[in-house]
Amino acid sequence: MDPKHRSRLITEGRDRAGARAMFKAVGFTDSDLSKPLIGVANTWIETMPCNFHLRRLSAKVKEGIRAAGATPMEFNTIAISDGETMGTEGMRASLVSRELIADSIELVCRGQLFDAVVCVVGCDKTIPAAAMALARMNLPGMVLYGGTIAPGRFKGKDVTIQDVFEAVGANAAGKISDQELKELEDVACPAAGACGGQYTANTMSTVMEMIGLSPVGFNSVPAMDPRKDEVAFNCGSLVMEALKRGTRPRDILTSDAFQNAIAGVAATGGSTNAVLHLLAIAREAEVPLHIDDFQKVSERTPLQGTDGDRFEHCSGIRERDRDPQSGSHRAIREAAEADRGPSDSERQSGTGRLCGEDQWA
Questions:
Q1: Rounded distance, CA 205 to CA 211, Å?
Q2: Structural domains in the chain plus CATH codes
Q3: What is the pLDDT of residues 223-265, one digit of tens each?
Q4: Integer distance in angstroms from the first to the last C-alpha of the chain?
Q5: What is the pLDDT of residue 346?
Q6: Is residue 122 a contact partner of residue 232, using CB atoms and an 8 Å limit?
Q7: Which residue has the higher pLDDT, 352 or 222?
Q8: pLDDT band (50, 70, 90) for residue 360
């Protein structure tokens, strides 16, 4: 594939002098405009921890793109926090936001004639929205998940947002005091990152790796882990590999890929919201997928471990102890060894490599 297969139309020739003049007004040079233009869709927002650190990661993605010989152009979209809005009328905005996010990514990429795109995502609906946009456009690209939050510490134990929700009930029942609830609230979410549990965000993060739109191992690195910057930087060379190979999302989003994704959800005890998101992604990719398929795959897929294991190996809660044998690496390997479905490590990912080879470290 011509690495400037789309951007030539906006940057080259006498008739594009006006466009080049406007690009130069914001700092792009002739050298920049002679290279492939790679969109960086940043879902940063200041309203939640899930996406709060994405400016930092997007900056690293752009560094990696420049190092790989292309020109990054960052743009933004919106996000709604499920964790903050649930129980209020604000929650009604959540699923609607998925469509708006997908539409906005598509519009900017089509309008600005980007050659490829890296979508940097965090909270629940930003992940499937990015996948929907990639499938709809069929533009070379990938999804980078910002990563899960670290655990807080309360009375000598690791705690997450789930402990806060449970403590609300305990307080209402008179089992803990108002002061204890306040102290837990203050320490449960210590920094940026998505909700600490195999809820929708971490589930869809696993799905992105299993389905091939994220390199295996990238999403599993927690939000504030020092390795996350390296992962983000490496997205630059990987998206350029996909562009040069001509690897498009619909080359990856096959029926077997969706079966893999469903198996990943079942194996990790993930959120049932994956059903509605995978159905939406499949529709954009024009791949037949039905709600009954989820039951069929679930019946043949073993659940890997207990709730505690899921925290450690899938949600990144024990990020201090993570290694390549945990998270999605483990899910792919054990699903293949179980021989109970199409899940395997010999399927292509968005980088053009096999899933089994597609490790960041």
A1: 10
A2: 8-149+195-338 (3.40.50.2300), 151-190 (no CATH)
A3: 999 999 999 999 999 999 999 999 999 999 999 999 999 999 9
A4: 28
A5: 55
A6: no
A7: 222
A8: very low
Residue 138 has pLDDT above 60, yes or no: yes
- The pTM score is 0.91
Residue type, 187: V
Of the candidates 194, 183, 193, 192, the residue with the CA atom closest to the CA atom of residue 153: 183
Considering the chain, what percentage of its residues have pLDDT values greater than 90? 83
pLDDT tens digits, residue range 139-158?
999 999 999 999 999 999 99
Tokens representing 94 are: 């959540």
Quick one: tokens of 334?
């054990």
Three-state SS sequence of the chain? CCCCCCCHHHHCCHHHHHHHHHHHHCCCCHHHHCCCEEEEEECCCCCCHHHHCHHHHHHHHHHHHHHCCCEEEEEECCCCCHHHHCCCHHHHHHHHHHHHHHHHHHHHHHHCCCCEEEEEECCCCHHHHHHHHHHHHCCCEEEEECCECCCEEECCEEECHHHHHHHHHHHHCCCCCHHHHHHHHHHCCCCCCECCCCCHHHHHHHHHHHHCCCCCCCCCCCCCCCHHHHHHHHHHHHHHHHHHHCCCHHHHCCHHHHHHHHHHHHHCCCCCHHHHHHHHHHHHHCCCCCHHHHHHHHHCCCCCCCHHHHHHHCCCCCHHHCCCCCHHHHHHHHHHHHCCCCCCCCCECCCCCECCCCCCC
- Residue 56's identity, in one-letter code, is R
Task: Give the closest residue to 52 by CA, choosing from 142, 124, 119, 121.
Answer: 121
Q: Are strands 37-42 and 71-76 parallel, antiparallel or unpaired?
A: parallel
Contact between 122 and 201 (Cβ < 8 Å): yes
The pLDDT of residue 304: 81
Q: What is the pLDDT of residues 300-331, one digit of tens each?
A: 999 885 454 434 533 444 444 444 445 566 66
Question: Distance (Å, rounded) from C-alpha 100 to C-alpha 125?
Answer: 10
Relative orientation angle of helices 273-285 and 126-137, to the nearest 10 degrees: 10
